[in-house]
């Protein structure tokens, strides 16, 4: 990666950060700030580089809609304000298969 252009390295850093913190970002508006001029208008650009094309295809392929529900890599995506979140957490914590593993383990088991 060190031999790549600054554009490619910063695009990689952005996509890795989005992937890592995805569960915090879903359902929220956020701003990505960069001093790389070519990345500042990323959404307005046509896909020119192989890295841009691969990133675009990966985002699209990871998401699917089944029975009107949004999934990311076969995980159900719930908006952060959804009342279903409490139901899912309760079922995974209090049910016989949940095992009363505690808050941290329950959340880890129910989020990607």
TrEMBL record:
Pfam families: RT_RNaseH
Superkingdom, natural source: Eukaryota
GO molecular function, one term: RNA-directed DNA polymerase activity
UniProtKB keywords: Endonuclease, Hydrolase, Nuclease, Nucleotidyltransferase, RNA-directed DNA polymerase, Transferase
UniProt-listed InterPro entries: DNA/RNA_pol_sf (IPR043502), Retrovirus_Pol_polyprotein (IPR050951), RT_RNaseH (IPR041373)
Segments forming domain Reverse transcriptase RNase H-like: 3-56
Protein name, entry field: Disease resistance protein
